């Protein structure tokens, strides 16, 4: 099976091929927030987190720098979408109960972003950033993934990804850190769905542009031998990264 048959158009693919964040995450954040009136989902992409938050917050302000992503985002009566950079938004001072960033914090100019978050958050308002890294695999599948996928694409990652790989440990958060129990993030996928997901990695697409898709086809063939029945669904867990903090009175 050739890679171009396996994978559809990029923004559509991103919407369908990415795993979803655990619903208990939104419940946890809504219970910590001073009230459930207003949440800002910053760099909302196609609106996955915004939709989750809209079930619990009466109003969700969702921004993304990409007009294409906003256009593709799921409409919801509680969500107000806007094309904006992360570092500036239209919200009033101290109006926000929760500000969250899913899978995007490592791309921001944090020196400009933090003052904006602190401006819009209420006192004791909650800030949360989360993301995920590799699927947690075992045995032969882990070896195929590490050697035939992560190996070839290694030099194609943007350096910002390291912040997420390191679980945000090098980010200086200007909040009072809150310890929460980290939910498990899982997807239930067959072999093609798993490879569609791998194809959404920016480094995979850059590597294909750089040297062709042969490495993906090879990995797919090997994975198929291990998976045995390609249509069979498997539970795949992820290395989930989560930070939660609270705006303090300095």
In short:
The chain is 40% helix and 23% strand. It has eleven helices and eight strands. Helix 5 links the parallel strand 2 and strand 3.
**Mean pLDDT over the residues:** 93
How would the global form be characterised? elongated
**Terminal residue distance:** 59 Å
- The CATH class designation is Alpha Beta
Q: What's the order of the H and E elements?
A: HHHEHEHEEHEHHEEHHHE
* Model regions low in confidence, pLDDT < 50 over at least 5 residues: 1-9
The major beta sheet can be summarized as: 8 strands, mixed
Query: What is the radius of gyration computed over CA atoms, rounded to a whole number of angstroms?
Result: 19 Å
CATH homologous superfamily classification: Vaccinia Virus protein VP39
Structural class: alpha/beta
Number of helices, counting only DSSP H or I runs of 4 residues or more: 11
Describe it for me?
The structure is a single chain. The protein has 250 residues and is of the alpha/beta class. The protein has a single domain, classed as Rossmann fold (3-Layer(aba) Sandwich), CATH 3.40.50.150. Helices cover 40% and strands 23% of the residues. The protein has helices at 3-6, 10-17, 23-32, 48-54, 67-72, 110-120, 139-153, 161-165, 191-199, 202-211, 214-227; strands at 38-42, 59-64, 79-83, 96-102, 121-136, 176-177, 186-189, 234-246. Strands 1, 2, 3, 4, 5, 6, 7 and 8 form an eight-stranded mixed beta sheet that branches. α5 (67-72) links the parallel β2 and β3 (79-83). α7 packs antiparallel against α11. The longest helix is centred in the middle third of the chain and has 15 residues, at 139-153. It is elongated. The protein starts with a helix and ends with a strand.
């Amino acid at each position: 099976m050739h890679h171009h048959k396996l994978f559809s158009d990029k923004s559509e693919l991103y919407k369908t091929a990415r795993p979803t964040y655990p619903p208990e995450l939104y419940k946890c954040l809504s219970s910590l927030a001073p009230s459930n009136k207003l949440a800002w989902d910053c760099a909302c992409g196609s609106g996955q987190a915004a939709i989750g938050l809209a079930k619990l917050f009466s109003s969700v302000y969702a921004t993304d720098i990409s007009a294409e992503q906003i256009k593709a985002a799921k409409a919801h009566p509680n969500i107000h979408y806007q094309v904006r950079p992360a570092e500036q938004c239209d919200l009033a001072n101290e109006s926000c109960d929760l500000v969250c960033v899913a899978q995007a914090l490592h791309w921001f100019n944090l020196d400009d972003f933090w003052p904006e978050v602190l401006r819009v958050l209420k006192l004791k308002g909650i800030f949360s950033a989360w993301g995920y890294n590799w699927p947690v695999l075992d045995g032969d599948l882990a070896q195929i993934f590490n050697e035939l996928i992560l190996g070839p694409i290694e030099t194609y990652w943007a350096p910002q990804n390291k912040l997420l790989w390191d679980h945000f440990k090098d980010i200086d958060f200007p909040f009072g850190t809150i310890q929460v129990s980290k939910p498990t993030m899982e997807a239930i996928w067959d072999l093609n769905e798993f490879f569609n997901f791998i194809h959404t990695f920016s480094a995979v697409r850059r590597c294909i542009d750089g040297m062709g898709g042969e490495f993906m086809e090879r990995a797919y063939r090997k994975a198929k031998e291990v998976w045995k029945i390609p249509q069979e669904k498997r539970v795949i867990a992820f290395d989930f990264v989560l930070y939660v903090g609270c705006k303090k009175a300095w």
